[in-house]
Write a structure and sequence with these properties.
By secondary structure, this protein is of the alpha/beta class. The chain contains 13 helices and nine strands. An eight-stranded parallel β-barrel has the order 1-2-3-4-5-6-8-9, surrounded by five helices. Helix 12 runs parallel beside helix 13. The two termini are 37 Å apart. The structure holds (3S,4R)-3-hydroxy-2-oxopiperidin-4-yl beta-D-xylopyranoside.
């Protein structure tokens, strides 16, 4: 009964409008093809969860189950069962599936992080993982985050120290980022290959330094013939985020390089302008809704921006702390003001 009521609330409140349907009606008016969300297969059995995801969104990413630790928990043995559940959910609901990710310093199995592997051994491990995963999902993923979060948070924004960074320049004559992208292109020449990171969305304000570093890294990859098709701007930010103009400018400069941009992991924690002392209120919910809409508008307006995606979709299941209300649907799968604002933005485009 509870599930039925929840389902009725969703349809009742929104009429037949959903992000995916409204985006479809826009057709060629925008190059933005997807409004997406990260999902976790652990909640698919909850009809409110899977129903909201499949009704509203036309792209999903696995929150965790396609990461290195999920797929190659044991060295040399590949387990796609959890990642497959998300890919099949996408297929069954005519949604696109976005792969996340094949190379990161986090969410790695202990055999990898504690293995004390030599540089040539790590090159083999990386190439084998990237190749096996990309080949397995050949033709089934619209994009892969080949490398995630490689850049340090402070000047000079070198590559972060992690397991993969033990691959030395001498060994590969470049670095592990290049190794991963080259392996990915070889494994599936048709897959769109993305570099994905956080605090890199705006080329202005506090994120300018890391944003410029990422832009320079990606440009250098292109200059050196390393295959890359797009960049993911995560955007774990807050309701007080005020660098939207810089986000547009940043997306445009990637477009000028011939790259696609995906907003990949957007969530807006309840925050006061310069801090995180959240006081959730109608006003705050409105502010959040308006910001979601403004960012969506920026994506729709920017030719390079083809995917607008949040990290989860319901406050019931967010990686962020309880009480931060970061996502468009509330804990009960009811629409927050963000849903209406985003639908208005799409419908009015
Ligand atoms: C997070 C998941 O949401 C959590 O469940 C997990 O414990 C850690 O990873 N940047 C990324 C995502 O690229 O993979 C992260 O996902 C959030 C930050």
């Amino acid at each position: 009964m509870k599930l039925l009521l929840a389902a009725l609330t969703i349809t009742g409140a929104s009429g037949s409008d959903t992000f995916r349907d409204t985006l479809t009606t826009l057709g060629d008016k925008t190059t933005t093809k997807y409004v997406g969300a990260a999902v976790n297969e652990g909640w698919f059995s909850d009809a409110s969860y899977s129903g909201t995801a499949s009704d509203y969104y036309n792209l999903v990413t696995a929150e965790n189950s396609c990461k290195f630790s999920a797929i190659q928990h044991t060295q040399g043995s590949f387990d796609f069962s959890s990642c497959d559940q998300v890919q099949k959910f996408a297929e069954d609901n005519s949604m696109a599936f976005r792969g996340h990710n094949t190379c990161w310093g986090v969410n790695n199995p202990s055999w990898l992080d504690n293995g004390n592997f030599t540089s040539p051994e790590l090159v083999d491990i990386l190439e084998n993982h990237v190749t096996t995963v990309l080949k397995y999902y050949k033709g089934k993923a619209v994009a892969w985050d080949v490398v995630n979060e490689a850049i340090s948070d402070a000047a000079p924004y070198d590559l972060k120290l992690n397991t993969w960074n033990n691959i030395t320049a001498d060994e590969v004559n470049t670095n592990y980022v290049d190794v991963a992208f080259r392996a990915a292109r070889q494994a599936d020449p048709d897959a769109k290959l993305f570099y994905n990171d956080y605090n890199v969305a705006s080329s202005q304000g506090w994120s300018q330094g890391k944003s410029d570093a990422m832009y320079n890294m990606v440009k250098s990859m292109l200059d050196r013939g390393v295959p890359i098709d797009g960049v993911g701007l995560q955007m774990h930010v807050g309701t007080g985020y005020d660098l939207v103009d810089g986000v547009k400018a940043n997306m445009e400069r990637y477009g000028d390089l011939g790259l696609e941009v995906h907003i990949t992991e957007l969530d807006l924690v309840c925050s006061q302008k310069n801090g995180y002392d959240c006081v959730w209120s109608d006003d705050m919910e409105k502010q959040q809704g308006e910001l979601y809409a403004t960012l969506l508008q920026a994506c729709l307006d920017t030719e390079a921006c083809t995917n607008f995606e949040t990290w989860g979709f319901t406050d019931a299941h967010s990686w962020l702390e309880d009480g931060t209300h970061p996502l468009p649907f509330d804990e009960n799968y009811d629409q927050k003001k963000a849903v209406g604002s985003m639908l208005d933005t799409l419908a009015g485009y």
